[in-house]
Amino acid sequence: MKITRDEAKRIADLAHLAFDDAALDRMASEMTKILTYIDQLAEVELEANVGQASDCPTPLRDDTIASQPADPARNAPEWDNGYFVVPKVIGE
Amino acid sequence: MSDPRELVGASLRAIAELNPRLNAVLRVNENAPAGTPIAVKDNIVTTDMPTTCGSRILPDFVSPFDATAVARLRASGWSIVAKTNLDEFAMGSSTEHSAFGVTRNPWNLDCVAGGSSGGSAAAVAARMVPAALGSETGGSVRQPAAFCGVVGLKPTYGRVSRNGLVAFASGLDQIGIVTKTVRECADLLGVIAGHDPLDSTSSTEPVGDYAADVDAGVRGLRFGVVREAVEKLDGEVRSNFDAALDVLRAGGATVEDASVPTIGYAIAIYYIVANAEASANLSRFDGVRYGHRSARARTLRELYFQSRGEGFGDEVKRRIMLGTFALSAGYYDSYYGRAQAVRERMRGDFAAAFRRFDYLLTPTTPEAAFRIGAKTGDPLSMYLSDIFTAPANLVGIPAIAVPSGFSRQRLPLSLQIMAPHFGESALFRAAGFFERETGHWREAPPVS
After folding, report:
1. Distance between CA atoms of residues B369 and B145, nearest Å
2. A24-51 pLDDT tens trace
3. DSSP conformation class of B245
4. Rounded CA gap, B4 and B303, in Å?
5. N or C: less crowded end of chain A, CB within 10 Å?
6. Which of B134, B171, B221 lies closest to B401, judged by CA?
7. How many CB atoms lie within 10 A of CB A59?
């Protein structure tokens, strides 16, 4: 699978990652090499039973609030009177 | 020296003396309470020390709660004396991807300690602490344990609560244990294992007396050698592995060829499944609620892109990119869907092999510890370090790495033993026998 620079840019936008041009070219080249290796999965013959659910049940809990609220201000980059502060969103 | 206050003091002194050469520890708690000292990988949260995940995106994060495994340790008289170095967000096989510098191997300072729990493995090998917690997604406890000549356990998926382990790939992640001996490992698993209401994937399977069979021997037990994994091996890893098989045979076990035809696809599956999950899990690091926030951002979009661009290292970005690609429109079925389907087939292959055998065997790693810098320019070659360890994560079974001798360069080699789901007691039985017969755990590295 060949990843072009345009394709790498599209993925970086989806992933919310900023790259400069040189880093984007390097990323496209490394992804191409790794995905070419991964493409060997296409050679595996798959049987009809694929996609069956696991036989281990997932325990479910009641959907109630149980844990104590943490102090979110302590680790917040910017905090004001009970709110996380971010740059203006509307009308930016 | 059994006074718990003196044990903590001795551990802190050993860290102060050795860490400038090894960089195994990122932070110590000089005020650690009396107890049996233990170090914890720095992606497992603690209230009394920051948790960095080896990343610049979390420079000063202090968790408001202890991870469940940490809380259970404290309640059982263990004292958390240090947080250990790791590849950023546990993504790597050499601890070279830590934002805080590489961890060096106590057997040879020019070599890597393995990863991603390289700090935990080096700290135990160098006798800084008697035990450490690490975490596993594709071999991140067993591979560094192998490189450093110590015991490394990946428990069954769900055996140990992941509450408070910073998520990398939630369907694979599991807290693991590094110790010098098998019995210490078994005792420690008994402390941290068990259901936790705060982790819905933690199992309700009863916690066993894991050390009960450590001395029981291997007479009559059936070991399968995974043919597809070892047939291309040669050199000293192969001869060391063959010698390990002879030790088991001499103990009365049967050792025969086993087949897991899909095992060679483990790395290809792993780098789709793990990275897909990672790309979702790491979206929470956005500069809004905690962690690094870019000072250059003027809009909310810039805040996301710049904070993540500045905070994450190259390997983490590479994996987020691969995972985002594998989940994106047009590629989901051919990459993520196919990887999960082949993984399911591998699960079937393992189940079939375990109908014939009590255990499956491979070397833990295809080579001894490599030199620092040898693989950083070639991500794929680094990924292949985990070729024997990743299958156990993909199928959810427990596996243990136990020292099996040394290379000609005097670097540790390691035997991997795998067992069916929740077969930890059986693992400790086989590993305990092998350790007793070979005694490699007694040898300390030059830096210790």
Report:
1. 10
2. 999 999 999 999 999 999 999 887 655 5
3. H
4. 48
5. C
6. B134
7. 14
Cβ atoms of B141 and B364 within 8 Å: the answer is: no
Return the pLDDT at B194: 97
Provide the token pair at B346: 């591998």
Beta pairing class for B131-136 and B36-41:
parallel
Tokens read off for B268:
């290809």
B380 and chain A in contact, CB less than 8 A: yes
Radius of gyration of the CA atoms of chain A, in A: 23
What is the complex's ipTM, to 2 decimals? 0.92
Cα–Cα distances in Å, from B143 out to B166, B193, B242, B253, B409?
20, 22, 19, 26, 18
Length of chain B: 448
Place of tokens 């345009």: A6
- Residues A82-89: contacts with CB under 8 Å, at least 24 apart: A84/B288, A84/B289, A86/B288, A86/B300, A86/B303, A87/B297, A87/B298, A87/B299, A87/B300, A87/B302, A87/B303, A88/B299, A88/B300, A89/B300
CA atoms of B124 and B403, how far apart (whole Å): 13
Please tell me if residue B290 touches chain A, with a CB cutoff of 8 Å. Answer: yes
Selecting among B11, B79, B93, B116, the annotated active-site residue is B116
Please state, as a whole number, how many other Cβ atoms lie within 10 Å of the Cβ of residue B219: 10
Number of A to B CB contacts under 8 A, please give it. 142
